[in-house]
Amino acid sequence: MSDITENPVENTISENTIVEKYLVFTVREKRYALLSKTISEVAALEKVFPLPLVPDYVRGIINRYSVPYALIDLSFLLFNDISNARKVIVLKEDVDKLALLIDDVVDIADLPSDKLMKIEQEETALVGSVNAFFEWKDYHVFCIEIGELVSRIKQDFEQKES
């Protein structure tokens, strides 16, 4: 019988290296990742209820178990191009009531924290929201910093109101 317990979100390789799980997904054939601990579920896109007077990248509201989530079109946010995607990443409610429209889920990557490489802000379309990347299966995977993304969305809503 083993005395080793395993946490599915965080494991340690050595005493100083923390491994975290990232959901790897695609938007316009580019790979992005979110920390899995910020995600509630991945689901098929169903009915979208449009909203007036919102930023262009907000497609409307979706209903998940009687809870409304603002649907954010990552393709529009990243590339200024409306997506025909049919999958959503629903964030945990303690993060915010947001769902992100994506093309597809690729995999889950276990990543040691020392493998994340910082990005200079001018190199990314989502200034502040994509601040790191990692190499994974011969691809650059860009990490979306969900706190920064939520801040940007809230700021855009406040500007729309004024």
Tertiary shape:
globular
What class would the helix/strand composition place it in?
A: mainly beta
Task: Figure out the total of helices.
Answer: 2
Rg calculated over all Cα atoms: 17 Å
Strand content: over 45%
Largest sheet: 7 strands, mixed
Succession of helices and strands:
EEEEEEHEEEEEEH
What is the strand tally?
A: 12
- Assembly type: single chain
What helical percentage do the residues reach? 10-25%
The parts where pLDDT drops under 50 for at least 5 residues are: 1-12
| Span between termini | 63 Å
- Overall pLDDT metric: 85
Describe the protein.
The N terminus is likely disordered. The radius of gyration is 17 Å and the shape is globular. Helices cover 14% and strands 47% of the residues. It has 162 residues and is mainly beta. The protein has two helices and twelve strands. The strands form two sheets. Strands 1, 2, 3, 9, 10, 11 and 12 form a seven-stranded mixed sheet that branches. The chain has a five-stranded mixed sheet with strand order 4-7-8-6-5.
In short:
With 162 residues, this protein is mainly β. The protein is built from 2 helices and 12 strands; from the N terminus they run ββββββαββββββα.
